[in-house]
Every structure is written in structure tokens, then in C-alpha cells.
Amino acid sequence: QVQLVESGGGLVQAGGSLRLSCVASGRTFSSSKMGWFRQAPGKEREFVAAIRWSDGSTYYADSVKGRFTVSGDNAENTVYLQMNSLKPEDTAVYYCAATTTRFGSWIRGYEYWGQGTQVTVSS
Prior knowledge:
Shape: globular
Distance between the termini: 40 Å
Order of helices and strands: EEEEEEEEEEE
């Protein structure tokens, strides 16, 4: 049983910052990539950012590039999302995700998901 445990999230004013954390664990588990998705009310879930453990490379959605930074600790299967210059349109439930797939899409094929954490950005 794989568990993703998230922390962080909350209420912040526009222009502020938040840092989300997520730990993936299991009896035997080693992810290839870990990432973040978000879903706003009435909208579909969308990809935000991810990190690939093999080389430490990262990938970002255009909407957050330059403002968000994904980082992590491969040994601990832990990923972080540093969110700066937050905008009201960043308001959403943010989900941590992990995949054991070695190659493939940055935005598809994630097998494990966290519970979600609310991020609210006020004007």
C-alpha cells in the first residue's frame, strides 16, 4: 500500500509564497517521477510541475513557469513545491502524485495520488 502524505497549503495574499511538501512511502516503493497537479472548482485537474529522479530534471506548466519551483529528496521519495508570486488564479486543491514509470509523459501515467491540500490566494 503506497501512501502519499502532503503538508502545507493554506491562505495567502496575492504576491505571497507557500511551500508544499509530499512524502511517498510503502513497504517497497521507489518512484521514477513525482509531481504536482491542481484542480480548481468546476475545472479539470491540470498538471503543475514534476521532477524526474534519474537526472533531477524538472518540467513545468507554462502557467507557473518562473514562479514555482519543484525540488525533492530521492532517497526519501519527498517532493516540494515552492510557490512564489502567487495569483488568485492559482487557487485550487493541489495534489501530489508519483509514478514508477521510467520513461514517458511528464503529465500522464501517475499511479499514486495524495489527498490534496487547499491553496487559496486572496486578491
